[in-house]
């Protein structure tokens, strides 16, 4: 899959939808004492949910309604600096790149030492009845844009 964002784009200052401030928890680290790699994807997901909520998108209600689904179809992360238990971090959700039936969200995780990780997730708008891609609704497009 072709990247919508390059690593360099993700590292640069860009418009952001939201930022989540958190600390690396003990249960987030592995035996080496650094964040276990899938935890960064969880950080992305948590911040994505915050960004949607802050933009007026109630994802649980949207999914429960059944008419529209927004599954994640691709996720990736690049790890640039180690994160350790207790580190204060910011997880930034960058303004997405919108397609006709999908959108790609960029993420950046920063700590006092710099940019620790970047990544992106691709979400496809699915017709809930037929389970086929459908155009992004105008209200969702406005909220994400």
UniProtKB/TrEMBL annotation:
Pfam families: 4HBT_2. Signal peptide: none annotated. Keywords: Hydrolase. Gene3D superfamilies: Hotdog Thioesterase. One of its GO terms (molecular function) is fatty acyl-CoA hydrolase activity. Transmembrane segments: none annotated. InterPro entries: 4-hydroxybenzoyl-CoA_TE (IPR050563), HotDog_dom_sf (IPR029069). Belongs to the 4-hydroxybenzoyl-CoA thioesterase family. This is Thioesterase.
């Amino acid at each position: 899959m072709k990247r919508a964002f390059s690593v360099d784009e993700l590292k640069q200052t860009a418009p952001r939808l939201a930022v989540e401030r958190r600390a690396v928890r003990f249960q987030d680290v592995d035996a080496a004492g650094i964040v276990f790699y899938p935890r960064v994807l969880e950080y992305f997901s948590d911040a994505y949910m915050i960004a949607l909520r802050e933009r007026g998108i109630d994802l649980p209600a949207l999914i429960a309604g059944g008419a529209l689904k927004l599954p994640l179809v691709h996720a990736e992360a690049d790890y640039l600096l180690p994160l350790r238990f207790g580190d204060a971090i910011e997880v930034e959700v960058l303004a997405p790149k919108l397609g006709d039936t999908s959108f790609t969200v960029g993420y950046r995780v920063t700590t006092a030492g710099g940019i620790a990780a970047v990544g992106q997730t691709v979400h496809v708008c699915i017709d809930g009845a037929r389970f086929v891609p459908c155009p992004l609704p105008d209200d969702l497009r406005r909220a994400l844009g």
